[in-house]
Design brief:
alpha/beta; Rossmann fold; 9-stranded mixed beta sheet; two-stranded antiparallel ribbon; 11 strands; globular; Arb2
Length: 340
Amino acid sequence: MHICLRRIIFERLSALGLTQLRLPRTAGPKEKHIPILASNDLEARERIILVLNEASQDLGIFAWRDTRSERGGLAVGSAIDFVKEVMCHASNPCPKGKATADIVKDELQEVEEVVQSAETAARIVYQDVSDSPGIVIANPGQLIWHRRGKQAMTLTSWFSLPRKSAVHGPMLVHEVHNRVPGHEDYAAHLGSVFKDVVDPLIFGRPDGGKLPAIDIIALTDGALELVRFLDDHWSRYESFISAIALGGPLHNSNTITNSAFRKFLSRRARAYVISHLPAGTPIDGAFYGCNTYSSGEAEIAECVMGKSYPMMLDFFDEVAMNPEGYANPEVLIFENENEE
């Protein structure tokens, strides 16, 4: 079933302007590689949003449980609705007048009423939305290379492969044959995404080309790996990263050794965590070192993204409207006797 759903999701994401890139970039379709998703015209975008998902998820999936109709459906559990929302935001948002997001959403609704197809409407409307941020969705979940199938897959998919008999265990993962160099684990994959995708965008632009601002969304263990990576490489990327949103983060700010990066987190990063409080309610975020808010998801970490990405994108817009001087506002933390 997941194979069919993934195919449908990729078709819809393709209609929204995303394509699969192979890492390393020199790999052929049947050679060892890890696929990621990226906007078709990434080099032309003035803002780029990099998404670092959980290490257990398939490419383009935030939470399989949310793809069930009673929890929102395929578009909610995958990146489909998220990508639509991103494409409703301008790279250079205007603080006055009707928001670009509202204009595009109104147009999308009007077209859907005519063509009676959300996918066709997306092709018609979004092909003209060139001012929105570009998108890169990393793939830390599918880091096992299936040699016979010529594809990368998650550990869950690996365990689901046919076995010799009902009593045989799953095939062992060979650390050479079933791994892609540079993508052996989350940390290696993250480093390769920066080296092969982010670096060419910010260091490989032609002379005179405008360098893009990078916004990053990192979820659960992705937030942990991002904090570790930037703590070690902040001097290389600090001029290009505009803002960071962390969903259900696992890091402890006390482990951060780079004082400049620690200051950046306090000024231009926000965390959205599991909480019974209404979405957007400020929460004590001393542990994470940044402003922290309720995600609106009360129980399950993988569902935080589906509830909080509109707040994350609005936060990125706030920073984009004041790229030089933005700093998180001071917030009042209210105790709630029902909050555990």
